[in-house]
Amino acid sequence: MKALVTGATGFVGAAVARALVRAGAEVRVLARPDSDLRNLDGLPVERVTGDLRDPASLRKALTGCRHLYHVAAHYALWAKDPSIFYDINVAGTRNLLEAASEVGVERTVYCSTIGAIGLPPGGGLGTEQTPVSLEQMAGHYKRSKYLAEQEVHKLVKEGLPVVIVNPSAPVGEGDVKPTPTGQVIVDFMKGRMPAYIETGMNIIDVDDVATGHLLAMEKGRQGERYILGSKNLLLREVFAILSKLTGLKAPALKLPRGAVLPLAYLNHWLANFTGHPPRIPLEGVKMAKYKMHYDCSKATKELGLPQNPPEVALEKAVRWFRDHKYA
Fold it and tell me: Is 256 part of any domain?
């Protein structure tokens, strides 16, 4: 059985590729010519060059593959040219799934994001069925992933066999970029967090997310969404765990979001002017308004999603970042 993995040079995609190799699958990975290939070092996979914006390269990459794991995305809280989010995350997803249909791929797992799932307006846990609209999406990344899911649903209605997974906040080994969540860990380890804005997140081990992809391929129902998450935590609880793991003090000063928002707008303006990513991402501050806590029981019950403790995942991340000189 041959499977194509997109995004395998990135954090979650690399974990999916490793999980497939461990499961004995024949793995092909799609990478752009300028991709950072460190996450593929030593991994027995077939590498093919292509781009989500180039349909011909996608048809070539998919030929002979039975399964597709679409994990690639432009994942960031800022870009000087926001069109990249829509070119890759929306149009690129449509290009890939149409190519998969053309060459006869039997089944696809599409990796979306927890950010495309709604939260109850009065508080509480979000589920796969919580109503949400484009207007509720904060930032180009979330908006583009929401729109990409709409493209997937259209194709599912046309008969394309796709299962959707929505990872929460993965942490662990191999976060080369790093992701926004990984950057929080690196900044903590470097002592760059004298203060914080309280928010909530759902932490999951990236290896459990990868396992969730394989389980979704095996057991997931066509057209269904599955939240791949584990434990709901407040940011101060994440810092408390990191403090125990590193021996560093957690930031004690909690700032009101309203006080930071004007600085974030200024930082955003300067980033657009200079072309350098903002130190205070505007979209991150906007998202801090919401406690992104979710009910993950659908994936645990239907798929058997593993639930390793967040302490284990964060310890893996801290060790990996130290070993690779990020902090």
Answer: no
Q: Cβ distance 54 to 99 under 8 Å?
A: no
CATH number at residue 31: 3.40.50.720
Q: Which residues contact 277 (CB under 8 A, 6 or more apart)?
A: 76, 78, 271
For residue 34, tell me if it sits in a domain.
yes
In the chain, the number of structural domains is 1
Task: Give the other-Cβ count within 10 Å of 248's Cβ.
Answer: 16
Q: Model-level pTM? A: 0.92
Range of the domain at 113: 2-172+204-230+293-308
Question: What are the per-10-residue average pLDDT scores of the chain (327 residues)?
Answer: 94 97 96 91 94 95 97 83 93 96 96 93 90 84 94 94 97 93 94 84 97 98 96 95 95 71 59 65 62 93 96 97 94
Q: What is the CA radius of gyration of the chain?
A: 19
Residue with tokens 């060059």: 49
